[in-house]
């Protein structure tokens, strides 16, 4: 397979002025610019990294790429290279110094080490992003674990923004989905891992040309992003825009294994996982879950990728807040009532809150009208492409986890091979 995927001919290459501004429909909240604007911001937990700073006597920070509740992410240049060697750039994820954040980061390092040591020729291995190295640095309140990754360009959903669209066109998305399915099959069948946190931000596309990185690095060194005081800690503006696509895009990789768990664990899993809009029925009902929770997750995420919208938001129209009952009600409208076998495995308290002993849903008023159906919710595909797409997602969005297709079975689905 080539090092990059060329976009179909005829599609415009346009990038907006702020490509990381996500729609309210996907984020389900107002856009937050930097970490200090988050209501849960604690400046004492974040490491006070600065552009131009050299970390671990090796990595010189060039720019901030983004941030999360538990970390900041930076592009850095490896200064340990000899003069005759080409430049090497890395992504540094500097985790917060809290106990929970450190534990999560350590788990990601251990998962990466486990995967990297596997003896496997599975093609899906190429579509999984692993930690290359890790080390600790000292901050005011304690140690910060720093994870080193090979740099990637951007989340998969941003390809739509490059193309001047509100969503990734199916012709562009299908080859990437095949890579994602190969990566998932590798994780499920060879690594025995369940990702548990699939979302568009965790599917990252590589660089089509190393010159993109060089140009970006020169720009950041010449004109670094501004910073301001964040309660005694510098806060830099995120600069994740690497410019227009030059000739295509790199391969996609599944990232962020901080919440991954082993599927062959002796005891069944039943703790809360997944981004809320993508939660599988067995997760909402606490009916134990396994690898197929990732499949449901991927199926619901397709609306985010293709149309920049959420399929099942679980928002109660009377309060505009999330409701587990509304979420289940939306599932009932799309899939019909859940099978009694699933309800029988569900947590007693959760199930009794939503269903009678005979399996009747107790909140029928929350069920959307008949217009809320998969056909009406997919205006972004047409004709035979739409029919095949609905068949494709129908193999993933099923009440019973055992009835869902596996990643390997989905790889050769007719929709992925159909060219309108």
UniProtKB/TrEMBL annotation:
Keywords: ATP-binding, Kinase, Nucleotide-binding, Serine/threonine-protein kinase, Transferase. GO terms for cellular component: cytoplasm; nucleus. One of its GO terms (biological process) is spliceosomal complex assembly. PROSITE patterns: PROTEIN_KINASE_DOM, PROTEIN_KINASE_ST. It comes from the Eukaryota. Residues 59-416 form the Protein kinase domain. GO terms for molecular function: ATP binding; protein serine/threonine kinase activity. This is non-specific serine/threonine protein kinase.
């Amino acid at each position: 397979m080539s090092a990059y995927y060329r976009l179909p001919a005829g599609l415009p290459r346009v990038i907006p002025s702020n490509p990381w501004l996500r729609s309210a429909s996907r984020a389900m909240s107002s856009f937050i610019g930097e970490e200090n604007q988050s209501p849960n911001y604690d400046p004492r937990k974040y490491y006070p990294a600065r552009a131009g700073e050299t970390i671990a006597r090796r990595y010189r920070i060039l720019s901030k790429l983004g941030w999360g509740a538990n970390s900041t992410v930076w592009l850095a240049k490896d200064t340990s290279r000899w003069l005759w060697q080409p430049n090497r750039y890395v992504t540094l994820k500097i985790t917060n110094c809290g106990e929970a954040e450190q534990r999560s980061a350590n788990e990601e390092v251990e998962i990466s080490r486990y995967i990297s040591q596997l003896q496997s020729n599975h093609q899906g291995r190429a579509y999984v992003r692993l930690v290359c190295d890790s080390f600790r640095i000292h901050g005011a309140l304690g140690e910060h674990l720093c994870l080193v990754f090979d740099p990637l360009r951007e989340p998969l959903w941003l390809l739509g923004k490059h193309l001047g669209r509100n969503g990734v066109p199916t012709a562009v998305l299908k080859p990437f989905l095949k890579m994602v399915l190969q990566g998932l099959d590798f994780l499920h069948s060879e690594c025995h891992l369940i990702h548990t946190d699939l979302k568009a931000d965790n599917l990252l596309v590589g660089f089509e040309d190393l010159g993109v990185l060089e140009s970006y690095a020169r720009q950041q060194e010449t004109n670094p992003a501004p910073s301001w005081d964040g309660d005694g800690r510098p806060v830099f503006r995120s600069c994740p825009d690497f410019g227009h696509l030059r000739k295509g895009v790199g391969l996609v990789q599944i990232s962020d294994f901080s919440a991954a768990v082993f599927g062959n664990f002796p005891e069944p899993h039943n703790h809360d996982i997944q981004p809320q809009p993508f939660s599988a029925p067995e997760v909402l009902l606490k009916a134990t879950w396994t690898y197929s929770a990732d499949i449901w997750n991927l199926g619901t995420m397709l609306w985010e990728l293709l149309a920049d919208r959420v399929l099942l938001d679980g928002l109660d129209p009377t309060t505009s807040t999330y409701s587990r009952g509304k979420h289940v009600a939306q599932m009932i409208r799309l899939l019909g009532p859940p099978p009694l076998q699933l309800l029988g495995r569900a947590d007693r308290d959760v199930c009794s809150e939503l269903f009678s002993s005979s399996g009747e849903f107790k909140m029928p008023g929350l069920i959307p009208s008949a217009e809320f159906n998969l056909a009406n919710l997919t205006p972004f595909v047409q004709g035979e492409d739409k029919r095949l797409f609905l068949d494709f997602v129908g193999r993933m969005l099923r009440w019973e986890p055992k009835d869902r297709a596996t990643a390997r079975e989905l790889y050769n689905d007719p929709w992925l091979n159909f060219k309108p």
